[in-house]
Amino acid sequence: MIVYAVVILAVLGGAFGAVLAFASKKLAVETDSRVEAIIEVLPGANCGACGFPGCAGLADAIVNAGAPLNACIPGKDKVAAEIAKIMGQEPVAGKIREVAQLHCNGTFDNAKAKYEYKGVIDCHLAVTQFGGPSYCYYGCIGLGSCVRVCPFGAITIGENRLPVVDTSLCVGCGLCSNQCPQKVLSIVPIDKQVHVRCNNRDKGKIAREACNVSCISCGICVRSCPEGAIQLIDNKVGSVSMIDYSKCTNCGICVEKCPRKSIHLDPPIDPTLVVCEKNQPLESGCSNCPLQEGCGSKVS
Amino acid sequence: MGQTFAIIFGSIFISNIVLAQFLGICPFLGVSKDLKSAVGMGFSVMFVMILSSSITWLVHEFLLVRFELEYLKTIAFILTIAALVQLLEMFLKKNIPSLYKSMGVYLPLITTNCTILGIALVNIQNGYGFFNTVVNAFANSAGFLLAMVLMAGIRVRLEEAELPESMQGLPIVFFVASSMALAFVGFTGMI
Q1: What is the pTM of this model?
Q2: Tell me, what CATH number does A82's domain have?
Q3: Residue A288 CB neighbours (<10 A)
């Protein structure tokens, strides 16, 4: 009897093995070796800043769908050059980095409080309660929905309730600006220094009462800008000034003219990104790295 | 016909594979974090379960019974299912890449999923014919899908809830799972 058992199991196992061996030859999918090579080169953070689903998605798109070679934002010039080498094309410069900028200065001191919010710590929920805890219906809620969505740990909530973006960690993936219910975060090229720090679209009087540094739609910035880069968005009575970053030259004239001090000239940002470029861990080692999950190089 | 209906209703509600038979707890807790992956896992299990139940039924009927080796069915079925899922993965990768992409993550997980082996063995134990085997596999996987979807729906709301620190994460999910199992006891005795 035991002979039967052994024979049957051996035959069964052998048959399945043979079928699988045959199938793996017959059904082998021809994958482009360049895709694998590009996945190796990419940082492996799967941040989605390129607009494709993860690093593997970008590698696939570069080889098969003609995505730009410099699409990887955290990878900068170095990765772009390596990808160009794999694809056998001329190296291209990396994209200008973009970082998140906050368009609100409604700190506890500036924005008038309407009520004290005691509920689930989530900006989306707070907005549903009478438009948020301050009199400004357009400003930052400050409960940190952007902080929780940031995969790089680049955002923290400051003492004055506004989120602070650590530009050395931010890769400009845009998850925070998508998450923000007030849309006060936007993704801006890193070399731009002039930012409108207000999102209030109310009429002048209402805007003035809601916050000390609100935009009252006076339009002085629009008239003073030599490049014509500023526009009042929405309509003439209730609107907010917005800068067209492709035209802005960082001259700072609007900053001086603004009677409400709601346009700021920031110091230039050091464009160094602290994101590990594989095998070059941060000084603090991999354990503190926001990218360690999904990273190909576990150094320490 | 009456038996077929009894199998379908009984497998989905009365002896729900997760909430009454306590099989497949790992994907029930592990993959139920959001609705999309729960549904993906549910349908992948359905697909594999129907296929593997049919194949194991054939293996049992024409190989094991014939040589009077029924006691080997556990190991023979494990072998069959493992090989089948491997084959399926290769087949899908080659011929239906879109389905492979949507199921890709779950397929290897399913190889070691106890529901698949459990139902294959239950089919034999209850002496089902081929048709009822397929029906039972479908109904049980539908019950699995139902449990997954319910759990995912609850867990999405749990994310918003303010819980004591010791309850956050998995502990509250265990509480919820046991409450759901208790609720399903209500179906007992309907057939």
Answers
A1: 0.53
A2: 1.10.15.40
A3: 11
